[in-house]
């Protein structure tokens, strides 16, 4: 099944230019055919193609279906972007595939990357959403200072994962409570969070965790953390 | 900490050429300095450098230490290689990082890739082992037909993950018994295992599983499966 992405399909009743081109020029879909369209907000539409305009193919919606995501916890992964953008792009694809609601690039003291262009990450997330047959696109925030995340973003459970063994941590797999409504986890850069940053997070109620005895790269840690929520949720389902 | 890889260090008392070059030419390590060397078989050596020959730097072993892996279950991931080799390389890096003992590329009926050169995957595994400070290198097998794996490779628990919903499956997270001594999981190609292949595996005692309701790419499924073993083991530790 091919899904086309049209975030405003209900208002415009048209496929955006790149999707229209793919549908008409590449796949040579003919007017009158049925196509599946997702809006990235959790809805899937069965649409009938009205014309073959490759710039803004018009459709009529025949069916609208709210797609229940495969996971029920609202998951936010806040991660210090890696120096190598390939690794961030890979992470965005994989988080979208296994299921995440929000990705926040975190600016912290030891960040290897202080700026990030999120347009390409958004394109990768759209492609992974389509490929994995989801209807919900993860929100990708612009670079956000750690302090803002700690003070402004609320969740039922809030975790910070770091490497510094001198500040006690518990195992994420044991601390996470299955089925909680919303969760956020902070993942630091290769150089780890600064002790001052860890202290601030703990002072405002974050739970200090480790992902185990393995030394993981930043992007691997972010994926393993998100996967931990899914697996613990599955165990109690 | 930088680890040099020398699989035969105890016999040769020399770093192999590429490691010697890195040690002497790039890092400009001087004779008399201490260097850490791993053999990929679970041992870490503290060695004193005797000369600065960039082709086969000689050392004397001052300390030998058996490194206990962070996981106790012997894990084999048998996976149908993806068409795109980048995805197999990425998977090899990530499996090595999170911890795996054996990676077997599986040849099956719907395989997108019928041949694979494993030399590059081995180099990637070595680099990931060094980077994640492990001392044990996963074994990487050449391409192996599914039937040989099913008949020849033994493990305490044997799983096959597939997508076909018409052949009943259980959730891997619930079926895997924490702390089992050895486990193998089979992960099929994008086009899934053939029903005949599934039947043969089940007939010889494989447990049919799903990784959840998400549609995952082959390499993502392989990583998530391996991670599931680690997380369930952690819960019972």
Q: What Rg of chain A is obtained from the alpha carbons, in whole angstroms?
A: 20 Å
What do the pLDDT scores of chain A average to?
95
What does the main sheet of chain A amount to?
A: 8 strands, parallel
Span of the ends, CA to CA of chain A = 28 Å
Q: Biggest interface in this structure?
A: A-B, 29 and 29 residues
The proportion of residues forming helix of chain A, as a percent range, comes to: 25-40%
Strand content of chain A: 15-25%
- Overall strand count of chain A: 12
pLDDT below 50 for ≥5 consecutive residues: which ranges of chain A?
Answer: none
Element order of chain A: H for helix, E for strand: EHHEEEEHEHEEHEEHEHEH
* Structural class computed from helices and strand pairing of chain A: alpha/beta
- Write down the overall geometry of chain A: elongated
